[in-house]
Design goal:
The chain is α/β, with parallel strands linked by helices. The protein is built from five helices and three strands, in the order ααβαβαβα.
């Protein structure tokens, strides 16, 4: 929860709209309603589908969307390579350092601070 509060604060300060969902099927539903999404931050391990499966589903119809994948577990190289092909720009490991998260968003969005 601490990370979500910090992420929301950072994104809001930089005039980015953020929606925080924990259910991958809700993410897929939301994308069909809002085509102006640039970045999706996803956990790799989720109940209904993993991060790779979610990226695959989204990339099929929305190839411009970039991803950041967060995981508390090591992700094998084969899965990482597949995610990179689906526009995953970086992998962050839990426990997450908020500065790593901020740097990652800045890099992806090319923010000028």
């Amino acid at each position: 929860m601490k990370y979500l509060r910090l992420a929301r604060s950072f994104l809001k300060k930089n005039n980015l709209n953020a929606v925080f969902l924990t259910d991958p099927t809700k993410v897929l539903e939301m994308i069909t309603l809002n085509k102006h999404i640039d970045i999706i931050i996803t956990d790799f391990t989720m109940p209904e589908m993993n991060g790779l499966e979610l990226m695959h589903e989204i990339n099929r119809d929305y190839p411009w969307i970039k991803f950041i994948c967060i995981s508390g577990f090591d992700i094998d190289d084969k899965k990482k390579e597949a995610m990179i092909k689906l526009n995953c720009k970086t992998f962050l490991t839990k426990p997450l350092l908020i500065q790593d998260f901020i740097d990652c968003i800045r890099e992806i969005r090319n923010f000028a601070f």
